[in-house]
Backbone:
DNA sequence: ACAGTGTATTAAGATATTGTTAAGATACTT
DNA sequence: AAGTATCTTAACAATATCTTAATACACTGT
Protein backbone atom coordinates (compact mmCIF):
# COMPACT_ATOMS: atom_id res chain seq x y z
CA UNK A 1 0.00 0.00 0.00
CA UNK A 2 1.22 3.49 -0.77
CA UNK A 3 2.23 5.83 1.98
CA UNK A 4 -0.35 8.31 3.23
CA UNK A 5 0.09 11.80 1.83
CA UNK A 6 -0.61 14.64 4.21
CA UNK A 7 -0.77 18.35 3.59
CA UNK A 8 0.38 20.55 6.49
CA UNK A 9 -0.99 24.07 6.38
CA UNK A 10 0.65 26.15 9.09
CA UNK A 11 2.33 29.55 8.99
CA UNK A 12 4.43 29.12 12.13
CA UNK A 13 7.57 27.41 10.90
CA UNK A 14 8.38 25.84 14.26
CA UNK A 15 5.00 24.18 14.64
CA UNK A 16 4.93 23.13 11.03
CA UNK A 17 8.28 21.40 11.37
CA UNK A 18 7.20 19.82 14.61
CA UNK A 19 4.18 18.29 12.93
CA UNK A 20 6.32 17.21 10.03
CA UNK A 21 8.74 15.48 12.35
CA UNK A 22 5.84 13.75 14.05
CA UNK A 23 4.55 12.45 10.74
CA UNK A 24 8.05 11.33 9.84
CA UNK A 25 8.06 8.96 12.78
CA UNK A 26 5.09 7.17 11.19
CA UNK A 27 6.67 7.10 7.80
CA UNK A 28 3.93 9.31 6.37
CA UNK A 29 4.68 11.60 3.49
CA UNK A 30 3.77 15.26 3.62
CA UNK A 31 4.00 18.68 2.10
CA UNK A 32 4.24 21.90 4.10
CA UNK A 33 2.65 25.18 3.07
CA UNK A 34 2.25 28.48 4.88
CA UNK A 35 -0.63 30.32 3.29
CA UNK A 36 -4.26 29.78 2.43
CA UNK A 37 -3.78 30.26 -1.26
CA UNK A 38 -0.91 27.79 -1.45
CA UNK A 39 -2.99 25.38 0.61
CA UNK A 40 -5.73 25.46 -2.01
CA UNK A 41 -3.16 25.02 -4.75
CA UNK A 42 -1.57 22.04 -3.07
CA UNK A 43 -4.84 20.42 -2.18
CA UNK A 44 -5.58 20.45 -5.86
CA UNK A 45 -2.24 19.44 -7.31
CA UNK A 46 -0.74 17.30 -4.57
CA UNK A 47 -4.02 15.51 -3.82
CA UNK A 48 -3.24 14.63 -0.23
CA UNK A 49 -5.18 12.00 1.69
CA UNK A 50 -5.59 14.39 4.60
CA UNK A 51 -5.20 18.09 5.29
CA UNK A 52 -3.96 19.38 8.63
CA UNK A 53 -5.13 22.95 8.67
CA UNK A 54 -4.13 25.74 10.99
CA UNK A 55 -6.66 28.52 11.28
CA UNK A 56 -5.34 32.04 11.61
CA UNK A 57 -3.31 32.15 8.42
CA UNK A 58 -2.14 35.54 7.26
CA UNK A 59 -3.89 35.70 3.91
CA UNK A 60 -7.19 33.91 4.32
CA UNK A 61 -9.82 32.91 6.87
CA UNK A 62 -9.68 29.26 7.82
CA UNK A 63 -13.36 28.76 7.20
CA UNK A 64 -12.99 30.15 3.75
CA UNK A 65 -10.30 27.62 2.92
CA UNK A 66 -12.47 24.77 4.14
CA UNK A 67 -15.41 25.93 2.09
CA UNK A 68 -13.34 26.29 -1.04
CA UNK A 69 -11.97 22.78 -0.73
CA UNK A 70 -15.37 21.34 0.05
CA UNK A 71 -16.66 22.63 -3.24
CA UNK A 72 -14.84 19.86 -5.00
CA UNK A 73 -13.59 17.35 -2.46
CA UNK A 74 -14.51 15.38 0.64
CA UNK A 75 -10.96 14.76 1.74
CA UNK A 76 -10.61 14.79 5.52
CA UNK A 77 -9.65 18.13 7.00
CA UNK A 78 -8.35 18.21 10.54
CA UNK A 79 -8.22 21.70 11.95
CA UNK A 80 -5.42 22.54 14.35
CA UNK A 81 -6.03 25.84 16.02
CA UNK A 82 -5.04 27.96 18.95
CA UNK A 83 -8.61 29.17 19.30
CA UNK A 84 -10.47 26.99 21.73
CA UNK A 85 -13.68 28.93 21.57
CA UNK A 86 -16.83 26.94 20.87
CA UNK A 87 -17.84 29.34 18.20
CA UNK A 88 -14.69 28.75 16.22
CA UNK A 89 -14.99 25.02 16.50
CA UNK A 90 -18.61 24.96 15.42
CA UNK A 91 -17.90 27.29 12.56
CA UNK A 92 -15.04 25.20 11.25
CA UNK A 93 -16.81 21.88 11.69
CA UNK A 94 -19.95 23.16 10.03
CA UNK A 95 -17.95 24.59 7.18
CA UNK A 96 -16.86 21.04 6.45
CA UNK A 97 -13.94 20.19 8.72
CA UNK A 98 -13.85 16.65 10.04
CA UNK A 99 -12.07 17.23 13.30
CA UNK A 100 -10.79 20.06 15.45
CA UNK A 101 -7.76 19.99 17.71
CA UNK A 102 -6.75 22.88 19.93
CA UNK A 103 -3.17 23.86 20.58
CA UNK A 104 -1.30 22.79 22.48
CA UNK A 105 -2.15 19.31 21.36
CA UNK A 106 -0.77 15.92 22.25
CA UNK A 107 1.29 14.20 19.61
CA UNK A 108 -0.34 10.88 20.32
CA UNK A 109 -3.79 12.30 20.00
CA UNK A 110 -2.94 13.99 16.72
CA UNK A 111 -1.62 10.76 15.30
CA UNK A 112 -4.65 8.83 16.52
CA UNK A 113 -6.98 11.31 14.86
CA UNK A 114 -4.94 11.15 11.68
CA UNK A 115 -5.37 7.39 11.73
CA UNK A 116 -9.12 7.83 12.10
CA UNK A 117 -9.16 10.05 9.04
CA UNK A 118 -6.98 7.64 7.10
CA UNK A 119 -9.27 4.78 7.98
CA UNK A 120 -12.11 6.77 6.50
CA UNK A 121 -10.23 7.51 3.32
CA UNK A 122 -9.39 3.86 2.89
CA UNK A 123 -12.94 2.82 3.56
CA UNK A 124 -14.40 5.41 1.23
CA UNK A 125 -12.12 4.46 -1.57
CA UNK A 126 -13.46 0.93 -1.52
CA UNK A 127 -16.94 2.19 -2.25
CA UNK A 128 -16.18 4.30 -5.24
CA UNK A 129 -16.65 1.52 -7.68
CA UNK A 130 -14.34 3.28 -10.09
CA UNK A 131 -10.63 2.64 -10.26
CA UNK A 132 -8.15 2.77 -7.40
CA UNK A 133 -10.53 0.96 -5.11
CA UNK A 134 -8.89 -0.66 -2.20
CA UNK A 135 -10.18 -2.96 0.47
CA UNK A 136 -8.54 -2.93 3.84
CA UNK A 137 -9.31 -5.08 6.84
CA UNK A 138 -6.89 -5.58 9.68
CA UNK A 139 -3.58 -6.63 8.16
CA UNK A 140 -5.25 -7.63 4.96
CA UNK A 141 -5.43 -5.46 1.93
CA UNK A 142 -6.81 -5.95 -1.57
CA UNK A 143 -6.12 -3.68 -4.48
CA UNK A 144 -8.97 -4.55 -6.81
CA UNK A 145 -7.70 -2.41 -9.63
CA UNK A 146 -4.28 -4.01 -9.61
CA UNK A 147 -5.57 -7.42 -8.61
CA UNK A 148 -3.07 -7.66 -5.81
CA UNK A 149 -3.36 -8.80 -2.24
CA UNK A 150 -1.24 -7.75 0.69
CA UNK A 151 -0.75 -9.10 4.17
CA UNK A 152 1.22 -7.03 6.65
CA UNK A 153 2.17 -4.81 3.76
CA UNK A 154 3.81 -7.66 1.89
CA UNK A 155 2.26 -8.87 -1.30
CA UNK A 156 1.02 -12.42 -1.25
CA UNK A 157 0.34 -14.51 -4.27
CA UNK A 158 -3.16 -15.87 -4.78
CA UNK A 159 -4.31 -18.10 -7.57
CA UNK A 160 -7.26 -16.84 -9.64
CA UNK A 161 -9.88 -18.79 -7.75
CA UNK A 162 -8.41 -17.96 -4.39
CA UNK A 163 -8.49 -14.31 -5.35
CA UNK A 164 -12.06 -14.46 -6.56
CA UNK A 165 -13.07 -16.20 -3.36
CA UNK A 166 -11.33 -13.65 -1.18
CA UNK A 167 -12.89 -10.75 -3.07
CA UNK A 168 -16.31 -12.29 -2.77
CA UNK A 169 -15.92 -12.68 0.96
CA UNK A 170 -14.41 -9.20 1.29
CA UNK A 171 -17.21 -7.51 -0.61
CA UNK A 172 -19.67 -9.12 1.76
CA UNK A 173 -17.79 -8.51 4.98
CA UNK A 174 -20.04 -9.22 7.92
CA UNK A 175 -22.51 -11.34 6.00
CA UNK A 176 -22.72 -15.10 6.03
CA UNK A 177 -22.45 -16.49 2.52
CA UNK A 178 -23.87 -19.95 1.93
CA UNK A 179 -21.92 -22.65 0.16
CA UNK A 180 -24.39 -22.60 -2.67
CA UNK A 181 -24.09 -18.87 -3.15
CA UNK A 182 -20.32 -18.97 -3.20
CA UNK A 183 -20.25 -21.88 -5.65
CA UNK A 184 -22.59 -19.99 -7.92
CA UNK A 185 -20.59 -16.81 -7.80
CA UNK A 186 -17.30 -18.47 -8.51
CA UNK A 187 -18.04 -21.38 -10.78
CA UNK A 188 -21.40 -20.22 -12.07
CA UNK A 189 -22.54 -23.70 -11.28
CA UNK A 190 -26.17 -24.43 -11.62
CA UNK A 191 -26.67 -27.90 -10.26
CA UNK A 192 -23.06 -28.71 -9.53
CA UNK A 193 -22.86 -29.06 -5.80
CA UNK A 194 -19.15 -29.30 -5.33
CA UNK A 195 -18.81 -28.14 -1.76
CA UNK A 196 -15.66 -30.24 -1.16
CA UNK A 197 -13.82 -28.21 -3.77
CA UNK A 198 -14.82 -25.03 -2.02
CA UNK A 199 -13.39 -26.47 1.17
CA UNK A 200 -9.98 -27.08 -0.27
CA UNK A 201 -9.82 -23.57 -1.68
CA UNK A 202 -10.89 -22.15 1.61
CA UNK A 203 -8.14 -24.18 3.25
CA UNK A 204 -5.42 -22.94 0.90
CA UNK A 205 -6.70 -19.39 1.13
CA UNK A 206 -6.71 -19.52 4.89
CA UNK A 207 -3.23 -20.92 4.92
CA UNK A 208 -2.17 -17.77 3.08
CA UNK A 209 -4.02 -15.12 5.04
CA UNK A 210 -4.63 -16.50 8.52
CA UNK A 211 -1.91 -16.61 11.12
CA UNK A 212 -3.59 -19.49 12.91
CA UNK A 213 -5.73 -21.58 10.61
CA UNK A 214 -7.31 -23.43 13.49
CA UNK A 215 -8.90 -20.21 14.75
CA UNK A 216 -9.31 -17.92 11.77
CA UNK A 217 -9.48 -14.17 12.29
CA UNK A 218 -10.78 -13.21 8.89
CA UNK A 219 -12.99 -15.92 7.50
CA UNK A 220 -15.18 -17.71 9.96
CA UNK A 221 -17.07 -20.87 9.17
CA UNK A 222 -20.72 -21.29 9.99
CA UNK A 223 -21.28 -24.97 10.21
CA UNK A 224 -24.04 -26.24 8.01
CA UNK A 225 -24.39 -22.85 6.38
CA UNK A 226 -21.30 -21.29 4.88
CA UNK A 227 -18.61 -18.75 5.60
CA UNK A 228 -18.38 -15.19 6.82
CA UNK A 229 -15.69 -12.56 6.57
CA UNK A 230 -15.30 -10.57 9.75
CA UNK A 231 -14.07 -7.06 10.16
CA UNK A 232 -10.84 -7.21 12.09
CA UNK A 233 -9.39 -4.60 14.39
CA UNK B 1 -35.31 12.82 4.41
CA UNK B 2 -35.79 10.77 7.56
CA UNK B 3 -34.76 12.09 10.92
CA UNK B 4 -31.34 11.09 12.22
CA UNK B 5 -31.43 8.24 14.71
CA UNK B 6 -28.96 8.44 17.54
CA UNK B 7 -28.12 5.93 20.22
CA UNK B 8 -27.13 7.41 23.57
CA UNK B 9 -25.08 5.08 25.73
CA UNK B 10 -24.63 6.61 29.16
CA UNK B 11 -25.19 5.19 32.62
CA UNK B 12 -25.59 8.52 34.38
CA UNK B 13 -29.26 9.31 34.02
CA UNK B 14 -28.78 13.05 34.37
CA UNK B 15 -26.21 13.29 31.62
CA UNK B 16 -28.14 10.93 29.41
CA UNK B 17 -31.24 13.05 29.71
CA UNK B 18 -29.24 16.18 29.16
CA UNK B 19 -27.89 14.81 25.90
CA UNK B 20 -31.36 13.66 24.94
CA UNK B 21 -32.76 17.12 25.55
CA UNK B 22 -29.98 18.56 23.45
CA UNK B 23 -30.79 16.25 20.58
CA UNK B 24 -34.45 17.12 20.96
CA UNK B 25 -33.70 20.72 20.15
CA UNK B 26 -32.44 19.59 16.75
CA UNK B 27 -35.41 17.36 16.15
CA UNK B 28 -33.21 14.29 16.16
CA UNK B 29 -34.58 10.96 17.28
CA UNK B 30 -32.77 8.89 19.84
CA UNK B 31 -32.76 5.88 22.12
CA UNK B 32 -31.14 5.84 25.55
CA UNK B 33 -29.42 2.84 27.09
CA UNK B 34 -27.32 2.44 30.20
CA UNK B 35 -25.16 -0.62 29.73
CA UNK B 36 -22.67 -1.99 27.29
CA UNK B 37 -24.69 -5.08 26.52
CA UNK B 38 -27.84 -3.13 25.79
CA UNK B 39 -25.76 -0.79 23.66
CA UNK B 40 -24.64 -3.69 21.51
CA UNK B 41 -28.19 -4.96 21.30
CA UNK B 42 -29.57 -1.59 20.28
CA UNK B 43 -26.82 -0.96 17.81
CA UNK B 44 -27.92 -4.17 16.17
CA UNK B 45 -31.67 -3.81 16.26
CA UNK B 46 -32.24 -0.06 16.33
CA UNK B 47 -29.60 0.58 13.67
CA UNK B 48 -28.86 4.15 14.67
CA UNK B 49 -27.02 6.54 12.37
CA UNK B 50 -24.66 7.50 15.17
CA UNK B 51 -23.67 6.18 18.56
CA UNK B 52 -22.78 8.51 21.41
CA UNK B 53 -20.82 6.32 23.75
CA UNK B 54 -19.82 6.99 27.31
CA UNK B 55 -16.79 5.04 28.45
CA UNK B 56 -16.78 3.76 32.00
CA UNK B 57 -19.98 1.80 31.83
CA UNK B 58 -20.64 -0.61 34.66
CA UNK B 59 -20.67 -3.87 32.73
CA UNK B 60 -18.18 -3.56 29.92
CA UNK B 61 -15.03 -1.78 28.80
CA UNK B 62 -15.69 0.97 26.30
CA UNK B 63 -13.01 -0.29 23.96
CA UNK B 64 -14.61 -3.70 23.96
CA UNK B 65 -17.93 -2.23 22.88
CA UNK B 66 -16.29 -0.34 20.05
CA UNK B 67 -14.48 -3.42 18.82
CA UNK B 68 -17.60 -5.57 18.91
CA UNK B 69 -19.56 -3.08 16.87
CA UNK B 70 -16.73 -2.58 14.43
CA UNK B 71 -16.79 -6.26 13.59
CA UNK B 72 -19.91 -5.73 11.57
CA UNK B 73 -20.52 -2.04 11.18
CA UNK B 74 -18.84 1.25 10.34
CA UNK B 75 -21.45 3.43 11.93
CA UNK B 76 -19.94 6.58 13.47
CA UNK B 77 -19.11 6.26 17.15
CA UNK B 78 -18.50 9.43 19.12
CA UNK B 79 -17.00 8.73 22.50
CA UNK B 80 -17.98 10.99 25.37
CA UNK B 81 -15.79 10.41 28.36
CA UNK B 82 -14.66 11.91 31.62
CA UNK B 83 -11.18 10.54 31.04
CA UNK B 84 -9.06 13.13 29.32
CA UNK B 85 -5.89 11.11 29.29
CA UNK B 86 -4.11 10.72 25.97
CA UNK B 87 -3.87 7.01 26.39
CA UNK B 88 -7.62 6.62 26.70
CA UNK B 89 -8.22 8.75 23.65
CA UNK B 90 -5.72 6.92 21.51
CA UNK B 91 -7.03 3.57 22.63
CA UNK B 92 -10.63 4.42 21.82
CA UNK B 93 -9.84 6.07 18.50
CA UNK B 94 -7.62 3.18 17.42
CA UNK B 95 -10.26 0.69 18.44
CA UNK B 96 -12.52 2.28 15.88
CA UNK B 97 -14.12 5.36 17.42
CA UNK B 98 -14.55 8.33 15.11
CA UNK B 99 -14.34 11.13 17.62
CA UNK B 100 -13.64 11.70 21.28
CA UNK B 101 -15.14 14.39 23.47
CA UNK B 102 -14.17 14.92 27.09
CA UNK B 103 -16.61 15.91 29.78
CA UNK B 104 -17.57 18.51 30.52
CA UNK B 105 -18.32 19.21 26.89
CA UNK B 106 -19.96 22.12 25.19
CA UNK B 107 -23.40 21.50 23.78
CA UNK B 108 -22.61 23.39 20.64
CA UNK B 109 -19.46 21.41 20.04
CA UNK B 110 -21.28 18.13 20.57
CA UNK B 111 -23.92 19.10 18.08
CA UNK B 112 -21.33 20.25 15.58
CA UNK B 113 -19.47 16.95 15.84
CA UNK B 114 -22.72 15.06 15.50
CA UNK B 115 -23.37 17.00 12.31
CA UNK B 116 -19.93 16.03 11.04
CA UNK B 117 -20.74 12.38 11.65
CA UNK B 118 -24.16 12.73 10.04
CA UNK B 119 -22.63 14.31 6.99
CA UNK B 120 -20.50 11.24 6.64
CA UNK B 121 -23.42 8.86 7.10
CA UNK B 122 -25.45 10.68 4.49
CA UNK B 123 -22.54 10.52 2.14
CA UNK B 124 -22.00 6.83 2.79
CA UNK B 125 -25.60 5.80 2.68
CA UNK B 126 -25.55 5.28 -1.05
CA UNK B 127 -24.86 1.59 -0.75
CA UNK B 128 -25.40 0.58 2.83
CA UNK B 129 -29.18 0.50 2.82
CA UNK B 130 -29.28 -3.28 3.13
CA UNK B 131 -32.11 -3.50 5.62
CA UNK B 132 -31.57 -6.55 7.74
CA UNK B 133 -34.51 -8.39 9.19
CA UNK B 134 -33.93 -8.61 12.86
CA UNK B 135 -35.80 -10.14 15.74
CA UNK B 136 -35.38 -8.62 19.14
CA UNK B 137 -36.76 -9.79 22.45
CA UNK B 138 -35.31 -8.71 25.75
CA UNK B 139 -31.59 -9.35 25.59
CA UNK B 140 -31.99 -11.75 22.73
CA UNK B 141 -31.46 -10.84 19.15
CA UNK B 142 -31.56 -12.78 15.90
CA UNK B 143 -30.22 -11.53 12.61
CA UNK B 144 -32.07 -13.76 10.17
CA UNK B 145 -30.21 -12.46 7.15
CA UNK B 146 -26.80 -13.13 8.64
CA UNK B 147 -27.93 -16.24 10.49
CA UNK B 148 -26.45 -14.98 13.72
CA UNK B 149 -27.75 -14.85 17.26
CA UNK B 150 -26.82 -12.39 19.97
CA UNK B 151 -27.33 -12.32 23.70
CA UNK B 152 -26.51 -9.14 25.54
CA UNK B 153 -25.04 -7.94 22.30
CA UNK B 154 -22.49 -10.70 22.23
CA UNK B 155 -22.73 -13.25 19.49
CA UNK B 156 -23.50 -16.75 20.66
CA UNK B 157 -22.92 -19.87 18.69
CA UNK B 158 -25.88 -22.10 17.94
CA UNK B 159 -25.79 -25.39 16.09
CA UNK B 160 -28.05 -25.67 13.03
CA UNK B 161 -30.87 -27.40 14.86
CA UNK B 162 -30.66 -25.11 17.83
CA UNK B 163 -30.86 -22.16 15.49
CA UNK B 164 -33.82 -23.58 13.62
CA UNK B 165 -35.56 -24.27 16.88
CA UNK B 166 -34.94 -20.80 18.21
CA UNK B 167 -36.16 -19.19 14.98
CA UNK B 168 -39.28 -21.30 15.05
CA UNK B 169 -40.06 -20.26 18.60
CA UNK B 170 -39.18 -16.63 17.86
CA UNK B 171 -41.42 -16.42 14.82
CA UNK B 172 -44.27 -17.68 16.96
CA UNK B 173 -43.61 -15.57 20.02
CA UNK B 174 -46.58 -15.75 22.35
CA UNK B 175 -48.04 -18.91 20.84
CA UNK B 176 -47.78 -22.35 22.35
CA UNK B 177 -46.24 -24.78 19.89
CA UNK B 178 -46.97 -28.46 20.42
CA UNK B 179 -44.23 -31.05 20.43
CA UNK B 180 -45.64 -32.58 17.32
CA UNK B 181 -45.68 -29.30 15.46
CA UNK B 182 -42.10 -28.49 16.37
CA UNK B 183 -40.88 -31.95 15.43
CA UNK B 184 -42.58 -31.61 12.07
CA UNK B 185 -41.13 -28.20 11.38
CA UNK B 186 -37.60 -29.15 12.25
CA UNK B 187 -37.21 -32.77 11.24
CA UNK B 188 -40.09 -32.96 8.78
CA UNK B 189 -41.00 -36.07 10.65
CA UNK B 190 -44.33 -37.58 9.90
CA UNK B 191 -44.66 -40.55 12.19
CA UNK B 192 -41.43 -40.11 14.10
CA UNK B 193 -42.45 -39.13 17.57
CA UNK B 194 -39.10 -38.30 19.05
CA UNK B 195 -40.06 -35.90 21.78
CA UNK B 196 -37.08 -36.86 23.97
CA UNK B 197 -34.73 -35.53 21.31
CA UNK B 198 -36.61 -32.25 21.27
CA UNK B 199 -36.16 -32.05 25.02
CA UNK B 200 -32.43 -32.43 24.69
CA UNK B 201 -32.22 -29.61 22.17
CA UNK B 202 -34.43 -27.42 24.26
CA UNK B 203 -32.11 -28.04 27.18
CA UNK B 204 -28.96 -27.10 25.27
CA UNK B 205 -30.66 -24.11 23.73
CA UNK B 206 -31.83 -22.90 27.09
CA UNK B 207 -28.39 -23.36 28.52
CA UNK B 208 -27.20 -20.91 25.90
CA UNK B 209 -29.88 -18.25 26.11
CA UNK B 210 -31.39 -18.45 29.58
CA UNK B 211 -29.61 -17.02 32.60
CA UNK B 212 -31.43 -19.41 34.90
CA UNK B 213 -32.48 -22.60 33.17
CA UNK B 214 -34.68 -23.67 36.05
CA UNK B 215 -36.95 -20.67 35.50
CA UNK B 216 -36.66 -19.73 31.86
CA UNK B 217 -37.42 -16.17 30.79
CA UNK B 218 -37.71 -16.79 27.08
CA UNK B 219 -39.01 -20.26 26.39
CA UNK B 220 -41.63 -21.54 28.75
CA UNK B 221 -42.69 -25.16 29.10
CA UNK B 222 -46.38 -26.05 28.86
CA UNK B 223 -46.64 -29.43 30.47
CA UNK B 224 -48.26 -32.03 28.33
CA UNK B 225 -48.51 -29.64 25.39
CA UNK B 226 -45.32 -28.00 24.21
CA UNK B 227 -43.33 -24.78 24.47
CA UNK B 228 -43.94 -21.09 24.15
CA UNK B 229 -41.67 -18.16 23.53
CA UNK B 230 -42.54 -15.22 25.72
CA UNK B 231 -42.05 -11.55 25.01
CA UNK B 232 -39.60 -10.31 27.60
CA UNK B 233 -39.32 -6.97 29.34
C1' DA C 1 -45.36 -40.37 51.77
C1' DC C 2 -45.85 -42.90 47.59
C1' DA C 3 -46.35 -44.11 42.88
C1' DG C 4 -46.87 -42.19 38.36
C1' DT C 5 -46.39 -39.03 34.73
C1' DG C 6 -44.01 -35.73 32.31
C1' DT C 7 -39.82 -33.08 31.96
C1' DA C 8 -34.73 -31.72 32.50
C1' DT C 9 -30.06 -33.01 32.49
C1' DT C 10 -25.99 -35.56 31.48
C1' DA C 11 -22.79 -38.30 29.08
C1' DA C 12 -21.19 -41.50 25.70
C1' DG C 13 -21.36 -43.46 21.17
C1' DA C 14 -22.80 -42.66 16.31
C1' DT C 15 -23.07 -39.64 12.52
C1' DA C 16 -22.30 -35.60 9.82
C1' DT C 17 -19.67 -31.82 8.62
C1' DT C 18 -15.49 -29.69 7.91
C1' DG C 19 -10.28 -29.34 7.46
C1' DT C 20 -6.17 -31.21 5.47
C1' DT C 21 -3.20 -33.51 2.46
C1' DA C 22 -1.51 -35.42 -1.65
C1' DA C 23 -1.60 -37.40 -6.13
C1' DG C 24 -3.22 -37.12 -10.76
C1' DA C 25 -5.39 -34.16 -14.45
C1' DT C 26 -5.73 -30.00 -16.77
C1' DA C 27 -4.44 -25.67 -18.40
C1' DC C 28 -1.15 -22.39 -19.32
C1' DT C 29 3.75 -20.53 -20.68
C1' DT C 30 7.94 -20.56 -23.00
C1' DA D 1 6.84 -30.36 -26.21
C1' DA D 2 8.54 -29.70 -21.66
C1' DG D 3 7.83 -27.46 -17.53
C1' DT D 4 5.27 -24.89 -14.33
C1' DA D 5 1.26 -23.50 -12.08
C1' DT D 6 -3.32 -24.40 -11.02
C1' DC D 7 -7.25 -27.09 -10.52
C1' DT D 8 -9.81 -31.31 -9.41
C1' DT D 9 -10.64 -35.37 -7.05
C1' DA D 10 -10.47 -38.60 -3.50
C1' DA D 11 -9.12 -40.35 0.85
C1' DC D 12 -8.35 -39.49 5.53
C1' DA D 13 -8.15 -36.85 10.03
C1' DA D 14 -10.14 -33.70 13.13
C1' DT D 15 -14.15 -31.50 14.86
C1' DA D 16 -18.69 -30.52 15.67
C1' DT D 17 -23.15 -32.09 15.97
C1' DC D 18 -26.73 -35.29 16.64
C1' DT D 19 -28.84 -39.25 18.71
C1' DT D 20 -29.73 -42.29 22.22
C1' DA D 21 -30.31 -43.98 26.63
C1' DA D 22 -29.89 -43.70 31.44
C1' DT D 23 -30.60 -40.88 35.45
C1' DA D 24 -32.37 -37.11 38.15
C1' DC D 25 -35.92 -33.88 39.06
C1' DA D 26 -40.67 -31.71 39.60
C1' DC D 27 -45.19 -32.02 39.99
C1' DT D 28 -49.85 -34.50 40.63
C1' DG D 29 -53.23 -37.12 42.77
C1' DT D 30 -54.30 -40.69 46.00
Residues:
Amino acid sequence: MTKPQILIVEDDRAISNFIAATLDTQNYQYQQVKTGSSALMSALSYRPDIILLDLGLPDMEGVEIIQKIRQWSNMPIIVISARSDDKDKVEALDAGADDYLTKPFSVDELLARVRVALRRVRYDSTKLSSEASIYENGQLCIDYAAGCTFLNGKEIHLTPIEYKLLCLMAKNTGKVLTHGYILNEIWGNVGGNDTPALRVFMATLRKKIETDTSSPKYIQTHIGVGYRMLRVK
Remarks:
- Residues 44 and 73 of chain A are 9 Å apart (CA to CA).
- Residues 159-161, 194, 196-197, 200-201, 223-224 of chain A lie near DNA strand D (CB under 10 Å from a C1').
- Chain A touches chain B at residues 74, 86-87, 89-90, 93-94, 96-99, 106, 108-109, 111-113, 115-116, 120, 123-124, 127, 174-176, 222-225, 228, 230-233 (CB under 8 Å).
- The domain at 134-229 of chain A is CATH 1.10.10.10 (Arc Repressor Mutant, subunit A).
